[in-house]
Automatic annotation (TrEMBL):
SUPFAM superfamilies given in the database record: Trimeric LpxA-like enzymes
Coiled coil regions in record: 178-222
Protein source organism: Enterocloster alcoholdehydrogenati
Pathway: Amino-acid biosynthesis; L-cysteine biosynthesis; L-cysteine from L-serine: step 1/2
Domain Serine acetyltransferase N-terminal stretches: 3-36
Enzyme class: transferase
Listed EC numbers: 2.3.1.30
Recorded superkingdom: Bacteria
Protein's UniProt name: Serine acetyltransferase
Entry keyword set: Acyltransferase, Amino-acid biosynthesis, Coiled coil, Cysteine biosynthesis, Transferase
Length: 224
């Protein structure tokens, strides 16, 4: 079973990394693959409650690959961890099949409570370089999280999310309408200036109307 998982991981790299040449090269030279191989063994020990050995393996893997996958994390098949340095995947994280994870990604928790505290990624999710997904929520199938985004909320299937905090910008490949940005200070100052000018002009018009009404009244009283 572990060997099959490793083979699927190698195939995933070959399919999704244009720079990958052969299965042999991927197996020996890709630290993302090495991290996943170490992790498959560490996870086996973790599931059999041999926590110290599990953690030891994951720390050795971290030393050699700069990728830290907690032995408790559940990793699917065909995962591509590209480049990999600085990737951190927490204990209760779940990564679905065929996900792609770039360097600097954190699948982390918020707070110090025990229990489920890390995200669950669906299948075919892409997490861009440097992105952070923080909290115990689900990211749907086929989602893309932009490079350097910080995702704090769940996502439905087929959503692209960007920014800090990450917000959906595409659903099913179609751009979502943009929300009106909050008014800037300059826009507020301009609006205030126009309001003051309108108030001034209205006052002048009112005074003029009163003056004309008085003049008309005076003319009428003279002609009588
Ligand atoms: C998120 C991503 C998948 C979007 O791809 P896409 O579907 O082609 O989307 P678009 O390029 O049309 O971008 C949609 C909007 O998101 C914005 N956007 C895209 N990536 C962004 C990012 N990383 N941060 C902030 N905004 C981003 C675009 O500017 C665009 O905004 P606009 O509609 O106001 O112009 C892609 O930009 C990305 O970040 N991929 C990660 C790649 C990576 O990490 N590579 C590492 C290789 S080593």
């Amino acid at each position: 079973m572990i060997l099959k998982d490793i083979w699927l991981d190698i195939k995933a790299v070959q399919e999704r990394d244009p720079a990958a040449r052969s299965a042999f090269e991927v197996l020996f030279l890709y630290q993302g693959i090495h991290a996943l191989i170490w992790h498959r063994f560490a996870h086996w020990f973790y599931c059999h409650k041999m926590f110290f050995i599990a953690r030891l393996i994951s720390q050795i893997a971290r030393f050699f690959t700069l990728i830290e996958i907690h032995p408790g994390a559940r990793m699917g098949h065909g995962i591509l961890i590209d480049h990999g340095s600085g990737v951190v995947i927490g204990e209760t994280a779940v990564v679905g099949d065929n996900c792609t994870i770039y360097q600097g990604v954190t699948l982390g928790g918020v707070g110090t409570k025990k229990g489920k505290r890390h995200p669950t990624l669906g299948n075919n999710v892409m997490v861009g370089a440097g992105a952070k997904i923080l909290g115990a929520f689900e990211v749907g199938d086929n989602c893309s999280i932009a490079a350097n985004a910080v995702l704090l909320k769940p996502l439905e299937d087929n959503v692209t999310a960007v920014g800090i905090p990450a917000r959906p910008v595409k659903k099913d490949g179609v751009s979502l309408p943009k929300k009106r940005e909050a008014m800037t200070l300059e826009e507020y100052e301009e609006m205030k200036r126009q309001m003051e000018q309108m108030t001034r002009e209205l006052k002048e018009l009112k005074e003029m109307a009163e003056r004309l009404a008085k003049e008309k009244e005076a003319r009428e009283s003279i002609s009588e």
